[in-house]
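Bit of a strange request maybe. I'm writing a small parser for structure token strings and I need a real example to test against, not something I typed by hand. Could someone generate the tokens for this chain?
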Amino acid sequence: MTTWVEQSMKRVGVVSATIGGTITADTFTFNLDPGQIVKRYDVVTVPVSGEERTHGVITEIVTTTEVPHHLANSWDTELLTGDAEPQTKVSQVTTATAAVLSNSLGLDMPVPQGAAVYLSTEHWIHEALGIDWSMGHHREDMIPIGSIEQSNDQRATVYINRTFLLGDEGAHLNASGIPGIAGKTSCLTFMAQSILQSEAHADHPQTAVIIFNSKKADLLRLHEPREDFSAEDAAQWRAMGLEPSPFTNVRYFLPRGRRGIADSFLPLPPDYALYAYTLPGTAGYLDLLFLNIVNETSTVESVTAEMTAILHDTQDPDHKLLTTWESLLQYVTKKSQARDTQGFWRAGIRQVSLALFMRYLRRTIGQGNDKLFVSALAANEREPMEVLYDLRPGDVFVFDIANLEQRPRELVVGSIMRAIADIKTDPAYMETFPEKVIIYLDELGKYAPRGDRGNALTEIFIDIAERGRSSGEILFGAQQSRTSVHSRIIDNMGNSVIGRTGSAELSTPGYSSIPPTIKATIPRLIHGEVVWLYPEFRQPVKINFPKPAWE
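Reply from user aminoacidic:
Good idea to test on real output. This should exercise your parser:
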């Protein structure tokens, strides 16, 4: 055993193999030294020989005795209720099982019986996770995601390579867990801030963030410093090379309500703009107003496609008749009630289909000149798609949708995501538009549910999930249940974090890749703790992320 091991690391036990408990290339068991305390998710190191080391993460801790059954232990029950010592001294040993994370030489061999086991220091944790080489050669690409807290109170900052989070090797981040106590929003917004600060430190900003605020005014104060923020909280940020500061370059966009007042929960941010939709500006997004409706014959889709064609074709005789939402309602009413058409409108579409289109349209936009849907924009109002042309690297745009009903929400989310894809392929904006755009959305399962047959919005999400690592559109999605989201989206998430989650949810197929011993700890996670699934980590790892520095 080398001197550096004895001086820099704390020994906690010795590798142990039995007839029934063999050591494999994937797991090993070790007996704890007397008085030593470890916990699940501790990272441990086994020096093998020379420069060879095997690292593992503790997944289970058990105590074994020589007593064959519990009845034998009951013989001393009466004595044990007082201060007396039991008559029989029972031998016992506490053992811990570790899942192998890596081997320093890339060998796939079991660790030797009798080898000493040590709690890993930060350097060896980085080696265990396979990030030590990148830390030394591509430090500018490494993004802090939180820390691992060992039993001896040592903290090790954990990093991931941006190419596995923002492309080209992989992309996207999904968070799941019980609302509130799982800390999904805190985790994802911390990651957004970590990315922005890491790029600023490298003097190469290339990422912007789009946030959809879907719960009251939760994300409308990202610019404000947090009041209940201690010196210890700040120290956790600085230990990762980050400044504990709120977001900068934040712009808020709130939905227009009645009489031109923001349709948002209080308190409103001090500086914001209103967004609204005109008919000409929404011409390419009409399909997003008619999602998940009972329409087995696709009649509404046919009408929507024809209306879109009319709005885009300035040579169409009906084009000049459709200038506002009100004129669209009037047009549809007139054409659906015309008596000289033999029951048809145009392009083989029946008048009854036109009437069905109108009923759904009116439910969404009302009379067509109030709240979110307007005839013309006021001086302080803009369409969300137009706003995106102002987006630059380092910016954070927050679109509030919390007080909207589901159909308008779907339009806002879908139109913005579709517009991002259009702008990124527009040669006129390739020099100024951010190379990477992070899109944060909570309640992802409401917009792209599992089992959906493939409506327009679900297809937008699937497209981003499948090609986002190459196009630079990065999805930060959150939901209570992974199983509520379309499988093609979850399957393409390069990274996943799981906060506190109930046992019933964990028993579903969406969590089958997590070892049972790790899965058993997830219902006991606290706010600020998540289990991180990352392609370069051989095993799931528990990560502690710091308290947000914003309100």
